[in-house]
């Protein structure tokens, strides 16, 4: 990245629940037009951090600026420039995809053509289908379509590839890369390190509510290797996933 | 970027919610099918029962053999101690099937019996007529009865449907308001639909109002449908035609808004979807049975009547019947409307406390 202008700044973020501290003093920046990964085990505080930046949750202390807006003073302005995909969120019952997009257009006050939105995520054939009737990969792509309605500057994707088969996962990587290439900043959480390595420009490792490492995937790997780390098993030129893709074909089935 | 419009967002939500309701089988069944089935059953069942209510005209002689004999037949219930005006009302609705007035003839030991039938209950009047004729020819009585004068007053016919339909309409509004609202908000909360909404600039008030508009719209379409079917297929009385329908729809709107309050409370109290039906039934069933949906409250034992008179549906049903059959305006049922409003204030005060967004 030549221009490293921060679009999200998180400073000393703390979130306490009644009896435990979910986030303890997180600080990081997300640069404009990068894919930024938040990595870490379950319960590390990734989702909590995302939801606080998304203005969905109150913080205990700390400061967050999103594109010049403070989460304390301008949550409405922030909502207008971000797109949010929640982990395991459902959609309004009994409506088809077109109707759901119309609903979100109204909620965002955006003027969109639902069919064009579906084309962006390659779901135009499913226009009249209900969300419940979609496959896992289709559901995630539809969720991503709803995050793009207000032409956001930043989108947040919380574990978008969890539970998807290898083809659907790769297909989603392509979509996320396309969105970034179109000028949108992407913040993503994931449990898959191969995914983070391929997709993210920079990643932050979160553990027990704190950032324990933050750099480009390459630098982080180099650092580990330089410290003398070696894999127990010699790395082959391909892995089992490559075998899977090679055997079952790249194109993605519904 | 154009200015954000809360109205656009509210309308979008109302539209989405309305579409969703129309496609939800349970909403359609509770709002339309159930009430229509009951209307059909009672529409064809007719009055039923052969007890005849005979009012004794104020001022009538009580110590005469005629009234004593009528009492003994067992099929006649004598209604006493009411004013002339009250009797006129009852006659009009057919709640009293006839009036009887017995007087000793001037300068004679014999009695003159004056009977007034009502067109609201011709069949029962006919039965009474034959009962009286039998008495007239009864050996022990004959010497003391000089004459029987008979008259029929013509009133607007008060049909079973005129009683049943407003009750069913009230019940339809109650179930739409309670079940629909409770289910929707609980499931929107549990499936994180509301959370996703909160990630957009929409206001909470838009979500509640949009949802409310859709539900009221749906309930009014249902109400109109029930009224029209009742009117054209079963002769439901609409005294002032379209004006009466409009008044009924205004009452229906008030009713749904009040009942939706129960739904908001239940959605906040229930922990899972399976808890919605039992809690909702606790709210709806007593009103279904005790609010004069099927039977007039007057038919209940006296200890039960105060309970009936505490329930909001009682007042909605009452107001609906007065507007539809007696042709009253909304101002004439202001007492019923006031009670409904009081209920509304109470319910929403609780709803604000227990309603949960997340």
Query: In CATH, what is the class of chain A?
Result: Alpha Beta
Structural class determined from secondary elements of chain A: alpha/beta
Helix-strand pattern of chain B = HHEHEHEEHEHHHHHHHH
Return the domain count of chain A.
Answer: 1
Question: What is the CATH third-level topology name of chain A?
Answer: Rossmann fold
Largest sheet of chain B: 5 strands, mixed
Low-confidence spans of chain A: none
Helix content of chain B: 55-70%
Oligomer: heterodimer
Poorly predicted ranges of chain B (pLDDT <50, ≥5 residues)?
Answer: none
**In percent, how much strand structure appears in the residues of chain A?**
15-25%
Q: What spatial order of strands do you see in the largest sheet of chain B?
A: 2-1-3-4-5
Side-by-side strand order of the widest sheet of chain A: 6-7-8-3-9-10
Strand content of chain B: 5-15%
- The CATH level-2 architecture of chain A is identified as 3-Layer(aba) Sandwich
The greatest inter-chain interface is formed by: A-B, 29 and 30 residues
Helix content of chain A: 25-40%
Which features characterize this protein?
heterodimer, A: alpha/beta, Rossmann fold, six-stranded mixed beta sheet, B: 358 residues, alpha/beta, D-Maltodextrin-Binding Protein, domain 2, 2 domains, 13 helices
Secondary structure topology:
The complex is a heterodimer of chains A (254) and B (358).
Chain A: E1 6-16, E2 21-31, E3 35-39, H1 46-53, E4 61-66, E5 69-70, H2 75-81, E6 82-85, H3 97-108, H4 114-120, H5 136-147, E7 154-158, H6 166-181, E8 185-190, H7 193-199, E9 202-207, E10 210-215, H8 217-226, H9 240-248
Parallel strand pairs in A: 3-8, 3-9, 6-7, 7-8
Antiparallel strand pairs in A: 1-2, 1-4, 4-5, 9-10
Chain B: H1 6-22, H2 25-45, E1 52-56, H3 65-72, E2 76-79, H4 84-93, E3 98-104, E4 111-118, H5 122-136, E5 145-153, H6 160-190, H7 193-198, H8 204-234, H9 242-269, H10 276-290, H11 305-308, H12 312-324, H13 334-354
Parallel strand pairs in B: 1-2, 1-3, 4-5
Antiparallel strand pairs in B: 3-4
């Amino acid at each position: 990245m030549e221009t490293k202008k921060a679009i999200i700044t998180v400073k000393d973020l703390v979130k306490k629940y009644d009896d435990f501290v979910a986030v303890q003093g997180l600080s990081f920046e997300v640069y404009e037009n990068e894919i930024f990964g938040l990595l870490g085990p379950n319960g590390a505080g990734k989702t909590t951090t995302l939801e606080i930046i998304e203005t969905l949750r109150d913080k205990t202390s700390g400061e967050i600026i999103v594109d010049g807006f403070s989460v304390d003073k301008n949550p409405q302005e922030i909502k207008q420039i971000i797109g949010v995909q929640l982990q395991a969120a459902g959609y309004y019952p009994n409506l088809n995809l077109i109707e759901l997009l119309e609903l979100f257009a109204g909620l965002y006050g955006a003027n969109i053509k639902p069919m064009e939105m579906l084309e962006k995520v390659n779901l135009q054939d499913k226009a009249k289908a209900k969300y419940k009737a979609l496959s896992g990969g289709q559901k995630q792509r539809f969720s991503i379509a709803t995050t793009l309605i207000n032409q956001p500057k930043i989108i947040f994707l919380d574990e978008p590839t969890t539970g998807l088969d290898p083809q659907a996962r790769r297909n989603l990587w392509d979509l996320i890369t396309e969105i970034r290439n179109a000028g949108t900043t992407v913040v993503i959480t994931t449990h898959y390190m191969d995914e983070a390595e391929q997709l993210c420009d920079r990643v932050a490792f979160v553990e027990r509510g704190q950032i324990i490492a933050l750099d480009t995937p390459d630098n982080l790997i180099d650092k580990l290797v330089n410290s003398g780390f070696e894999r127990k098993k010699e790395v082959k030129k391909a892995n089992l996933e490559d075998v899977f893709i090679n055997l079952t074909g790249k194109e993605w089935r519904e | 970027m154009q200015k954000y419009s809360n109205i656009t967002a509210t309308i979008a939500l109302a539209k989405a919610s309305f579409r969703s309701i129309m496609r939800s089988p349970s909403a359609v069944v509770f709002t339309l099918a159930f009430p229509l089935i009951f209307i059909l059953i009672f529409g064809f069942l007719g009055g039923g029962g052969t007890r005849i209510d005979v009012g004794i005209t104020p001022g009538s002689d009580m110590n005469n053999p005629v009234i004593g004999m009528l009492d003994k037949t067992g099929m006649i219930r004598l209604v006493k101690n009411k004013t002339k005006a009250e009797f006129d009302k009852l006659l009009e609705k057919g709640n009293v099937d006839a009036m009887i007035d017995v007087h000793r003839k001037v300068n004679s030991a014999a009695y003159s019996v004056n009977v007034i039938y009502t067109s609201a209950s011709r069949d029962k009047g006919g039965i009474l007529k034959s009962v009286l004729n039998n008495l007239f020819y009864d050996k022990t009585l004959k010497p003391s009865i000089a004459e029987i004068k008979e008259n029929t007053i013509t009133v607007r016919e008060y049909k079973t449907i005129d009683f049943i339909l407003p009750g069913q309409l009230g019940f339809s509004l109650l179930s739409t308001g309670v079940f629909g609202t409770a289910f929707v908000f609980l499931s929107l909360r549990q499936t994180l639909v509301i959370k996703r909404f909160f990630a957009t600039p929409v206001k909470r008030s838009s979500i509640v109002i949009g949802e409310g508009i859709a539900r009221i719209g749906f309930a009014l379409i249902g109400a109109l449908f029930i009224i029209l079917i009742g009117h054209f297929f079963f002769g439901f009385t609409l005294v002032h035609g379209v004006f009466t329908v409009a008044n009924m729809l205004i009452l229906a709107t008030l009713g749904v808004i009040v009942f939706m309050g129960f739904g908001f409370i239940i959605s906040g109290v229930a922990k899972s979807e399976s808890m919605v039906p039992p809690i909702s039934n606790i709210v709806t069933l007593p009103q279904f049975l005790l609010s004069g949906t099927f039977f007039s409250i007057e038919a209940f034992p006296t200890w039960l009547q105060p309970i009936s008179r505490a329930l909001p549906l009682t007042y909605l049903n009452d107001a609906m019947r007065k507007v539809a059959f007696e042709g009253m305006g909304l101002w004439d049922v202001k007492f019923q409307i006031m009670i409904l409003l009081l209920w509304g204030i109470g319910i929403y005060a609780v709803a604000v406390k227990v309603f949960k967004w997340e």
